[in-house]
């Protein structure tokens, strides 16, 4: 079954073409990497799929249903969840409060978060279980701004999972990570249950080739190639245009 279909998507801003007629289909349960040089249009494609940006042309389908005009928050409610290159958690709140905010989905507004959590023991316990699972329990009461960078990135992923994704869009989950954090995140990405479809942008070829089932290559806003990791690795055109330089500069 197809989870996500991008059909002939183009985007122009002030006459400049950022994406041109990009199409791709991601099957349910697939891990799809989107790669390409800086400025290739990867993040713009994510923003269009997530509903943050309207395409100039083309359509987006989610489990067979068109959602090209659906606002981002309604796509999220259907299970299309996105993580960001920069951590999107609230920096002034604690790690635990951030998890609770996602779990409560706005219900805290009625009573105030403290009151609701006091009454809703089950939610608090669920939040603590999430933190345990993601190795964040020891910093539950720390403000996010005081967390080391690697743990901030881990929290970004944990929050995405709390939102119960059916399709998870991850924008550079390994960006800027030190070697030890990188291994930890790559290992966690590898363990994501198969009922979650994953589409991720990454410049780290080790992570891409170890996690992805299929790889889409964007170049100058166009689809340059798509295939299995082996097909992409063995494609001389891609090596010439992109892989060679990236493997040496980012691996
Ligand atoms: N709102 C905008 N207005 C004008 N130009 C834009 C806008 N958004 C993106 N661009 C341009 O479109 C191109 C593609 O940007 P995009 O961020 O999608 O690339 P990317 O492949 O994600 O790059 P990176 O790997 O550096 O994150 C870039 O040249 C960028 O400067």
Automatic annotation (TrEMBL):
CDD domains reported for this sequence: ABC_Mj1267_LivG_branched (cd03219)
UniProt keyword list: ATP-binding, Nucleotide-binding, Transport
ABC transporter domain sequence ranges: 4-245
Signal peptide, first to last residue: none
Gene3D superfamilies xrefs: P-loop containing nucleotide triphosphate hydrolases
A GO cellular-component term linked to this record: plasma membrane
Molecular function in Gene Ontology: ATP binding; ATP hydrolysis activity
PANTHER family: CONSERVED COMPONENT OF ABC TRANSPORTER FOR NATURAL AMINO ACIDS, CONSERVED COMPONENT OF ABC TRANSPORTER FOR NATURAL AMINO ACIDS-RELATED
Protein name in UniProt: Amino acid/amide ABC transporter ATP-binding protein 1, HAAT family
Source organism: Thermaerobacter marianensis (strain ATCC 700841 / DSM 12885 / JCM 10246 / 7p75a)
